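Please fill in the sequence for the structure shown.

STRUCTURE ENCODING:
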């Protein structure tokens, strides 16, 4: 662990190392007192100072910095190839801090026509009351995004793959649109994780994560993160993080750090299982459409293949019979647990229109009523296939 809480992880200690090695070692310095190979949980609010203003290791109060959170933030920065990582109490807390750092009343944001319902709620019900305007665009079409940009646009917001329709946006192309507009490109990388996709390397300015999902990986923690490569922007975000206070607690930071160690092997299995399931669903007579970027017929398949290592563990599909049929499928599954969230080792099934995306009802982001979303876990894939066949009838 560094002797300050700057979370700058592009130093020589990490140069040339593979993702899998960084996931286990970045930020995870052995405890200097005991040699413990896992960083301790510093469950502490304040720190003894070496004289007035003499901060030992740069720590004074755990809202400002905590050694366990520092370890996670260094790890996050290393995995995304950024200079600064910041860990928050939730993904939406990270988004809120980012927007209040980058925007002032009168600014404009372009958001996707397919985004997480909580993100849309943040823009539509919270940020808009602050005097920030937004436009909705199909971010899979760079020309549509360019057309939505105004002279007041400061942020272009992207999810890829998107939630819940698994749309794919070309990060490099949108980065060029953002640069030409003098705006920043923000990419929510939650569905892909840094193992499958690294937006900063493709030109994005900020990466957002709900670390609740694949980073934590075990459905036992809520958290969020921002990663940037611009040191000055990192300092601005850290200032606002401290001023606003929605930081990750030490135990939550430790749980995410532990989960990240197996991120690579988990994402490989998530992706392999999801591909098998998407192929089966594509052949099922009750399924009218399968949304998975790994399928050659997906409109974003070629872009996804270019910017992702694999296609991830999220699959959505539409069923014959409309909304009630979709709800019935969700209720009949047994290995797939009916529940919100995603990215855990266990498989989840949900009806987005009534669950995670209910806040988008009646908006341009409203999802189809016959849509079912799967978070494919790492169980035996034959059990998962049998469960879905049974649920579909």
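FILLED IN BY: designer on duty
SEQUENCE:
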């Amino acid at each position: 662990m560094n002797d300050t809480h700057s979370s700058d992880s592009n130093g020589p200690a990490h140069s040339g190392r593979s993702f899998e090695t960084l996931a286990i070692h970045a930020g995870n310095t052995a405890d200097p007192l005991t040699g413990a190979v896992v960083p301790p949980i510093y469950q502490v609010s304040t720190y003894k100072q070496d004289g007035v203003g003499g901060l030992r290791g740069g720590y004074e109060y755990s809202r400002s910095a905590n050694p366990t959170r520092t370890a996670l933030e260094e790890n996050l920065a290393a995995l995304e190839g950024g200079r600064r990582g910041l860990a928050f109490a939730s993904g939406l807390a990270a988004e809120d801090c980012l927007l209040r750092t980058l925007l002032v009343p009168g600014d404009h944001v372009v958001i996707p026509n397919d985004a997480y319902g909580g993100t849309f709620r943040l823009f539509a019900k919270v940020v808009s009351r602050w005097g920030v305007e937004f436009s909705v665009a199909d971010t899979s079409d760079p020309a549509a995004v360019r057309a939505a940009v105004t002279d007041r646009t400061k942020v272009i917001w992207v999810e890829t793959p998107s939630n819940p329709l698994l749309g794919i946006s070309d990060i490099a192309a949108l980065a060029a649109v953002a640069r030409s507009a003098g705006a920043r490109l923000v990419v929510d990388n939650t569905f892909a994780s840094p193992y499958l996709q690294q937006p900063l390397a493709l030109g994005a300015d900020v990466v957002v994560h709900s670390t609740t999902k694949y980073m934590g990986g075990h459905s036992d923690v809520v958290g969020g993160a921002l990663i940037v490569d611009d040191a000055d922007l990192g300092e601005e975000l850290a200032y606002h993080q401290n001023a606003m206070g929605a930081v990750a607690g030490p135990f939550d930071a430790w749980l995410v750090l532990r989960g990240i160690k197996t991120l690579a092997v988990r994402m490989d299995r998530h992706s392999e299982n999801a591909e098998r399931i998407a192929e089966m669903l594509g052949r099922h007579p009750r399924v009218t459409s399968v949304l998975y970027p790994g399928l050659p017929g997906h409109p974003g398949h070629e872009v996804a293949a270019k910017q992702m290592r694999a296609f991830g563990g999220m699959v959505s599909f539409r069923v014959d019979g409309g909304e009630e049929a979709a709800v019935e499928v969700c209720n009949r599954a047994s290995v797939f647990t009916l529940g919100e969230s995603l990215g855990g080792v266990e498989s989840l099934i949900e009806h987005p229109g009534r669950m995670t995306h209910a806040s988008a009802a009646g908006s341009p982001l409203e999802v189809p009523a016959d849509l079912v979303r799967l978070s494919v876990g790492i169980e035996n894939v034959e059990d998962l296939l049998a469960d879905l066949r049974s649920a579909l009838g």
